[in-house]
Write a structure and sequence with these properties.
- With 278 residues, the protein is an alpha/beta fold.
- It has a single domain, classed as Phosphoenolpyruvate-binding domains (TIM Barrel).
- The chain contains 12 helices and 8 strands.
- Helix 5 links the parallel strand 3 and strand 4.
- The structure holds 3-methyl-2-oxobutanoic acid.
């Protein structure tokens, strides 16, 4: 049976047909498989990997090799969803050549279908060169976590006139440079509405309200598995932390009391073989 894969054209078609695009993060094979089988349109191998999976304080220590490693795993798990590989800090900041090579590695080695990078006018030359190399790009404006040290923390962006105008201008420049979608993170709902209406390409919101053409969440946040901090914009659709803890306690108790493993979990050996072992 052929699978109706979600592609760049599906993103654009969804915007034109007023259909919302679903995106979730994924970092490994088994979760990617579950999310893909659940019908999510797109899987973002985000550099949130650094915080959610690798336990770093922010995303700045994530490398292109980390991203390729996890993109490969996700790509083995997903059959229908479009896989977006996030470009980590410093992988598109040094030179145009370096940016194209790193984006290309996410596609060639990581098996991603597209890449995402943060920023606006400061990265336009890199975006144009990556698109010219036939690699689909998603932009990301508003709260761009790789700029955490410049922002002085993970703070809502675009509340003041000047900053809001800059975000609108960045989104328009990214569209002109050839990105096929833009992530809007942690900006006021009414600002994201203006941007979504101004653009021909879809916007994917995270903490940007309901008017975006699609939404993305960090899967571990959405499933209640990551408790270091929970941004205001997260909705938990499950509390897997407590389910996992309950199951783990059950395992520890049964294993310590000798209830597990039971006979049904073991393998037998013939008596005549056994006799020769003593
Ligand atoms: O790294 C990430 O997971 C992201 C999303 C939160 C948009 O960039």
């Amino acid at each position: 049976m052929s699978i109706n894969k979600f592609t760049v054209s599906s993103f654009l078609k969804a915007k034109n047909n007023d259909e919302k695009i679903s995106m979730l993060t994924a970092y490994d094979y088994s979760m990617a498989k579950i999310l893909d089988e659940s019908g999510v349109d797109s899987l973002l191998v985000g550099d949130s990997l650094g915080m959610v999976v690798l336990g770093y304080e922010n995303t700045l220590q994530v490398t292109i090799d980390d991203m390729i490693h996890h993109c490969k795993a996700v790509s083995r798990g997903a059959k229908r969803a479009m896989i977006i590989g996030d470009m980590p800090f410093l992988s598109y900041h040094v030179s145009i050549e370096d940016s194209v090579r790193n984006a290309g590695r996410l596609i060639q080695e990581g098996n991603a279908h597209a890449v995402k990078l943060e920023g606006g006018k400061n990265v336009i030359d890199k975006v144009k060169a990556i698109v010219k190399a036939q690699i689909p790009v998603i932009g990301h404006v508003g709260l761009t976590p790789q700029s955490v040290n410049m922002f002085g923390g993970f703070k809502v962006q675009g509340k003041g006139e000047e900053q809001a105008k800059e975000i609108i201008e960045d989104a328009l420049l990214l569209q002109e440079a050839g990105v096929f979608a833009i992530v809007l993170e942690a900006i006021p709902e009414k600002l994201s509405k203006i941007i979504t209406e101004k653009l021909d390409i879809p916007t994917i919101g995270i903490g940007a309200g309901k008017h975006c053409d699609g939404q993305v969440l960090v899967t571990q946040d959405m499933l209640g598995m990551f408790s270091d901090f929970t941004p205001k914009f997260v909705k938990k659709y499950a509390n897997l932390s407590s389910i996992i803890k309950e199951a783990t306690n059950g395992y520890i108790d049964e294993m310590k009391s000798g209830k597990f493993p039971g006979k049904e979990h073991g393998f037998t050996i013939k008596e005549e073989v056994l006799e020769k072992l003593y």
